[in-house]
């Protein structure tokens, strides 16, 4: 083999090794933080969407029947209850995921005494 061919193969091997090391590298702590923020926004959006759907249905029924805002109040409260139920279901799902897959940084914190 010629010398340039061997150095080229060595460079390719080093690039492949670096790529594999980067793939298995632990995630920075900030990505976990963004993940938690994403879950919090998901829960807030579920609550607000439940309220808005209930409000819309109640307003539509009141407009259709020409009644006082009785349907508006009833369906807004039902939307609130549905939003809270959906939010609690999401929280339970998140809790089950964290129980089955423990935090990756937990071992490092235990080692450091945190």
Automatic annotation (TrEMBL):
Record carries keyword Transport: yes
Keywords noted in UniProt: Hydrogen ion transport, Ion transport, Membrane, Transmembrane, Transmembrane helix, Transport
Bilayer-crossing regions: 39-59, 65-84
One matching Pfam family: ATPase_gene1
An example Gene Ontology CC term for this record: proton-transporting ATP synthase complex
GO process annotations (BP): proton transmembrane transport
Disordered, as annotated region: 94-114
The keyword Membrane belongs to this UniProt entry's keyword annotation: yes
InterPro entries registered for this protein in UniProt: Atp1_alphaprobac, ATPase_put
Sequence similarity: Belongs to the bacterial AtpI family.
Protein's job: A possible function for this protein is to guide the assembly of the membrane sector of the ATPase enzyme complex.
Record-given protein name: ATP synthase protein I
Source species: Roseovarius aestuarii
Upper taxonomic lineage: Bacteria, Pseudomonadati, Pseudomonadota, Alphaproteobacteria, Rhodobacterales
